[in-house]
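#onboarding

Welcome to the new folks! Below is a worked example of what a typical request in this channel looks like: someone posts a single protein sequence, and someone else replies with the predicted structure as tokens. Don't worry about understanding the tokens yet, we'll cover that in week two.

Example request:
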Amino acid sequence: MLCFFTPNWALGRPNSAKDLVSRFQSELIVVMKHAKELGVEGRYKKLAPLLSDTFHIPLMTRIAVGKFWKTATKKQRNRLIHAFQKMSLSTLATLFSSYSGEVFKFVAETSENQSNTWVVSTKLIKSDGDEVDIAYVATRFQKKWWLIDVILDNGISELKVRLSEYDNILKEGGTEALISTLEQKAAQLMTSEGN
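Example response:
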């Protein structure tokens, strides 16, 4: 029976971008520590509520789909959101598949006044001392803080990469092609580990 931990959602939602990132990273470390026992499906299930309560998946999907969002039907939009969420969860569940002493370190929290967003900069420090810069873009929506993008190694945002990638798929095959691609990639990720 896998009862390693219970996320403490009872404390209420974090009231700052920094606290939201801290909660996400703390829970991620817990999942990493139990990664092997949980397996990829267990990690997926443990991370699902955390992802939904941290990242604004509908808004991220809309941004990633770009201009094609306007032409999609309501049903297609819902399916896109669901497929995007599955892809995101599958990616997390396979990326964070072990633990060997990694720690997250807060670096800075800065305001992007023009776009009404905050950037929370952190580092993932590996056991060998290597560091990965991870910045999270946060915004307030309906009085709650949400993360809407991730920037690795001070580079291009994950959403911009998705926007470019999805744009090609949408131009060639439309909304249905993107939904199918996202679902297939999620399934491939979940079976790639062999758990």
